[in-house]
């Protein structure tokens, strides 16, 4: 028998916890970066798990001393024992870094949610990144989802939940088989208001670098405009779920390109 929740895993001895949580690291990352004997390597594979807590953070580095992990995840239990993915990030360590996660004085921005480093964000946007990205992604989300679902199945679950931090995250998750527990109506309204004559389209008036008219038909640039406050409120109250093995999703932004 093994635990079925994050809280249950966190009650185990540390060696057992590390072994279980390491199960959802995509094998492709281990192979790509030649990460041998990873579970025992506390310099490259770092966990934050407190006995008795119901959440866990994992940071996987490709080499000692590098400032950013190639994989960062934050998992937690819901009140009824379901697994929630609070954050999942894949970073390409060979790509340029943009300091959207910190202000010039070094204080954290929480990926632009609490504060915004506007200069870094503009540079990131112009380089083709999305809100919250400090580096280009590794383009291995499909493999990552597969590894994570193996982990979810190992825990005895057939579905899991995620709260997309940004608009583009929700769109990406749609295309990998996620559906909405909360927020589908909002996503449809956003798409409608970016259409010709819509309120959001009218607000794409170049009043900031993030509100270009080009954002009307670009999912990536829409996300930047929403991050810039074009909705008049934060992008929140969206919760998605995915059933293990389901790959067909929905599309709340038909005809809109990346």
Describe the structure.
The chain has 258 residues and is α+β, with helices and mostly antiparallel strands. It has two domains: 1-95 and 135-162, no CATH class; 171-258, no CATH class. Helix content is 28%, strand content 15%. The protein contains nine helices and seven strands; from the N terminus they run H-H-H-E-E-E-E-H-H-E-H-E-H-H-H-E. It has helices at residues 6-9, 14-21, 27-32, 118-126, 141-154, 167-174, 184-193, 199-202, 219-227; strands at residues 45-48, 55-60, 71-77, 83-90, 159-162, 179-182, 239-243. A seven-stranded mixed beta sheet has the order 1-2-3-4-5-7-6, covered by helices on one side. A hairpin with a 6-residue loop joins strand 1 and strand 2 (55-60).
Terminal CA distance: 44 Å
What is the H/E order?
HHHEEEEHHEHEHHHE
Overall geometry: globular
What is the strand content?
5-15%
Q: What is the gyration radius calculated from CA atoms?
A: 19 Å
With strands numbered from the N-terminus, the spatial order across the biggest sheet is: 1-2-3-4-5-7-6
Let me know the number of strands: 7
Largest sheet entry: 7 strands, mixed
Give the tally of structural domains.
Answer: 2
Question: Helical amount among residues, as a percent range?
Answer: 25-40%
Feature tags:
single chain; 258 residues; alpha+beta; 2 domains; 7-stranded mixed β-sheet; 9 helices; 7 strands; 28% helix
Task: Give the SSE layout.
Blueprint: H1 6-9, H2 14-21, H3 27-32, E1 45-48, E2 55-60, E3 71-77, E4 83-90, H4 118-126, H5 141-154, E5 159-162, H6 167-174, E6 179-182, H7 184-193, H8 199-202, H9 219-227, E7 239-243
Parallel strand pairs: 4-5
Antiparallel strand pairs: 1-2, 2-3, 3-4, 5-7, 6-7
